[in-house]
């Protein structure tokens, strides 16, 4: 029994050993087979399934562009350009800011979004069109036709101008014109005409410039800030800095009056407000800068090295116009005169207040002139002058507005022979009348006739220019407080029956202007200095 048990244990142990060896061999085979199976599976996947990616296009408001499916390692196809009203397509970028351009030759290795980049064409090309179609401004357009130097009724032939009153001249033959205050306004417009004439060059080049810039823009939509080109003798620069668009024209040419000169015309427009500025330089001594809006216009000018002026004019919603002019005339670098005028234009009247009186040496007073808009004729003017602390207020009338005086003669002072006035063909000298009585003005004249400065205009066909002529004309003056006794005073002193034919409404208007305009004028007459005018004009435009 015991021997049998021992044999059983030995057999069982042998069996277990054989089982372990067999299992070890089988395990090795299983491991090898499993490893081989994994390798085959991977090889099967790489060769039978290809990866693909999606390329999307974000047009940011433009027309839709269909996305593309691209296999790994292949390239996306550049699609047709999208469209966007008011914009020009620049290209595709990897980011919305447009800082990283897309390279369509680069293989695709992942999903990606391409972003459309746009230029706003309205912001440049249309701005240029707006500037070049609205830069002109004719200051005369604010002024009634009857008050202009080129108005037919204001033009004279030189033969019509009376230069001497040494013999009797019929009052009806005396050509009266504008007073010195209104002439200062027109004279600066007249002097500025040479600048406005050169502006016609811009008209000539406008279409060419727009077309040239459009071609440049179409070819270089990502770089629109600065463009230059030449057209004949003209060099044109167009620049846009995001806020202001500039159009600068440089050339050299032969110009009327001033001869061959280098010229620069610089136009600019503030995009936000639409305000347009123009600066013109002719040679070294002549420059004009002006600014224009829908209802206003102003310019500063320096001319010939002797004149500097600042002019502004504005129209309100009712059609009434107001303006100011500051003028400085210099000789040898020193101020000769500084004059100012303000004017107001309504449907019926042009009222002007100023301090210019070149015919009166050392004049420090103020003058208000009144004109009839319908005819353009000066109705009258009133002068405030202070002498030895005494204020004189004198009304002045053209002799053709004084009935009873038909002819006029003036004798110049000659040695001990005093100057004298004669009227109506008489050899008897015209006499003034003293105020008399007791008072500060007792030795002054109640009334008298004097020669005063006025201006008329002619057209020179040979030079195609308007020319201003300074003339001396006889005018009757009367101190305002003695106006009511004028008829009696003249009759008692000269045995002549006269009357002023200016109607009472016009006379009342003149006196109202005198009382209301002079105080305000005194406060503002020095507001614009010579230095301020020079600063406004500035210097030639240059770009770095």
Structure class: alpha+beta
Number of strands: 26
* Overall morphology: elongated
Number of discrete domains: 2
Give unreliable regions as ranges: 1-45
The portion of residues assigned to helices is: 10-25%
The major β-sheet equals: 17 strands, antiparallel
Number of helices: 8
**Mean model confidence by pLDDT:** 84
End-to-end CA span: 122 Å
Our Rg estimate from Cα atoms comes to 45 Å
Q: What is the percentage of strand-forming residues?
A: 35-45%
Summarize the structure in words.
It is a single chain. The chain is α+β, with helices and mostly antiparallel strands and 544 residues long. The protein folds into two domains: 53-121, Immunoglobulin-like, CATH 2.60.40.4270; 131-537, no CATH class. It contains eight helices and 26 strands. Helix 2 runs antiparallel to helix 5. It has helices at 2-48, 125-132, 180-191, 193-198, 200-219, 486-494, 504-524, 530-537; strands at residues 52-58, 68-71, 87-93, 112-120, 169-170, 226-231, 234-240, 244-255, 259-270, 276-282, 286-292, 296-303, 307-315, 321-331, 334-345, 349-354, 366-372, 378-387, 390-398, 402-403, 407-411, 420-423, 433-434, 445-460, 465-479, 499-500.
């Amino acid at each position: 029994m015991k021997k049998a048990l021992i044999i059983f244990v030995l057999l069982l142990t042998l069996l277990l050993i054989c089982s372990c060896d067999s299992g070890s061999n089988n395990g090795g085979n299983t491991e090898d087979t499993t490893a081989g199976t994994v390798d085959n599976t991977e090889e099967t996947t790489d060769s039978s399934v290809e990866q693909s990616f999606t390329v999307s296009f974000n047009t940011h408001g433009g027309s839709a562009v269909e996305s593309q499916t691209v296999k790994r390692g292949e390239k996306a196809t550049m699609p047709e350009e999208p469209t966007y009203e008011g914009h020009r397509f620049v290209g595709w970028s990897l980011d919305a800011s447009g800082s990283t351009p897309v390279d369509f030759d680069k293989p695709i290795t992942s999903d990606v979004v391409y972003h459309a980049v746009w230029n706003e064409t309205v912001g440049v090309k249309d701005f240029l069109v707006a500037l070049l179609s609205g830069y002109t401004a004719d200051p005369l357009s604010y002024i009634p036709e009857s008050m202009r130097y080129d108005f037919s009724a204001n033009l004279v032939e030189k033969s019509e101008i009376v230069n001497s009153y040494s013999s009797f001249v019929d009052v009806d033959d005396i050509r009266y014109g504008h007073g010195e205050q209104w002439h200062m306004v027109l004279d600066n417009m007249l002097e500025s005409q040479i600048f406005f004439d050169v502006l016609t060059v811009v008209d000539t080049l406008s279409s060419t410039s727009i077309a040239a810039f459009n071609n440049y823009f179409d070819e270089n939509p990502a770089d629109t800030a600065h463009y230059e080109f030449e057209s004949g003798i003209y060099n044109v620069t167009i620049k846009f800095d995001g806020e202001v668009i500039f159009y600068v024209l440089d050339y050299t040419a032969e110009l009327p009056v001033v001869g061959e000169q280098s010229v620069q015309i610089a136009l600019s427009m503030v995009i936000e407000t639409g305000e347009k500025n123009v600066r013109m330089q002719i040679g070294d001594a002549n420059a004009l800068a002006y600014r224009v809006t829908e209802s206003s216009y102003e310019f500063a000018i320096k001319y010939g090295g002797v004149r500097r002026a600042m002019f502004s004019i504005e129209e309100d919603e009712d059609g009434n116009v107001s303006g100011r002019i500051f003028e400085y005339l210099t000789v040898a670098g020193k101020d000769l005169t500084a004059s100012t005028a303000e004017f107001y234009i309504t449907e019926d009247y042009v009222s002007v207040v100023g301090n210019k009186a070149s015919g009166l040496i050392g004049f420090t007073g103020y003058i208000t002139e009144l004109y009839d808009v319908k005819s353009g004729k000066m109705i009258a003017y009133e002068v405030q002058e202070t002498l030895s602390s005494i204020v004189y207020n004198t009304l002045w009338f053209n002799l053709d507005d004084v009935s009873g005086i038909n002819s006029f003669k003036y004798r110049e002072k000659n040695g001990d022979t005093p100057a004298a006035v004669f009227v109506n063909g008489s050899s008897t000298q015209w006499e003034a009348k003293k105020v008399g009585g007791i008072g500060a003005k007792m030795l002054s004249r109640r009334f008298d006739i004097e020669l005063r400065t006025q201006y008329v205009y002619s057209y020179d066909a040979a030079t195609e220019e308007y020319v201003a002529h300074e003339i001396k004309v006889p005018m009757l003056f009367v101190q305002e407080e003695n106006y009511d006794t004028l008829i009696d005073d003249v009759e008692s002193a000269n045995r002549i029956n006269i009357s002023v034919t200016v109607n009472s409404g016009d006379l009342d208007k003149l006196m109202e202007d005198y009382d209301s305009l002079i105080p305000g004028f005194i406060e503002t007459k020095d507001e614009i200095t010579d230095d301020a005018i020079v600063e406004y004009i500035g210097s030639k435009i240059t770009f770095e």
